[in-house]
Structures are given as structure tokens and as C-alpha cells.
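Input.
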Amino acid sequence: MLMTPVLGFFSARMARGKNVLAPVRQSFIIAALASVTWVLWGHSLSFGQTVGGSSGGLRFVRFTNVGQEPNGADAATAPHLAFAI
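Output.
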């Protein structure tokens, strides 16, 4: 996420003057979509209970069941919300 502005400005540097904003805008839109996808499904599939040994379940979809109490399976002392973010 920290590389998003750098990638946008690097791509803009290689574009013509009239097309500078397009790569920057695309980089920020992709970062926003990645953030929303992580909140909706990514965290649940990465850190949920394993289903069939391949990926996590959907227990944490849309950050449900993610709160201030620690999740002992992932981090014993860190709040689950901080760990997820």
C-alpha cells in the first residue's frame, strides 16, 4: 500500500504530459479496490478456520466476529482488529 503513490508517479513519469493523471488515478483505484476486497473476503480466507486444508472459512466475512479481544489462534496478545488491519 505504501508503494501505490510511487508506482503511480513512476508510471506518470513515463507517460506524455496530457496523460499524467491516468496512471496515478489507476494506482489509487487499484489500492482502494484491494483494501475493500481485503475487508470483505481476504482476511476471512487468509485467517479463518481451514476448510478442506486449502483456505479459510467465511467466519470473518465483512469483519464480523473481529473485535478488540485477541484471537488466540493468530496473535495471543494483539487485538484481533489490529491484527486484521
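The chain has a mean pLDDT of 83.
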